[in-house]
Amino acid sequence: MRKNPLLIFLSSQSVLCLGFCCLVIYVLKDHGFNHEYRASYGASSAAFYVEVAQADGFPFVLELTGNSELEKLVHLYDLPRKPRSGDKLLLSDDSTASFSRMSGKKSLSLGVPIGINSAGIDDLDELPGIGPKLAEKIIEYRNLNSSFNSIDELYKIAGIGRKKLEIIRSLISLD
Question: Does the predicted TM-score (pTM) go above 0.70?
């Protein structure tokens, strides 16, 4: 009796097959839908997200939905300021806290805009239509001009036109 080659492949390469299926789902989820729709409806406007990274633990993301939850977080970790959506809270062993920003990938998946005044190349590269070269140009422009005062300033960067800016407009902020 002859065995089906597809079944042989699936049984012998199950991890590879699972990885491929996950990749297909990721691509369809991230690139198969309108990014403007995801940014508008992907996250609640009342909620915001803070990533907490402890020195000896696994980082986790908190969804904060009200001022009372924010105040509890500030008091729990004795924070110097209130966190903003997209902040990464770094907790050291000596109980001191410092702030950074979440990665671009995490920010976009949570519906938090990427701040063009603080994002690095890898974060900007996560935006649709922005590759590493264009991300470098954005950072170069930002460094020469101290910061962006308006999202429309991106028009001044070669490679960003009206269409591209309209695609990413809802995914970025001036932070």
Answer: no
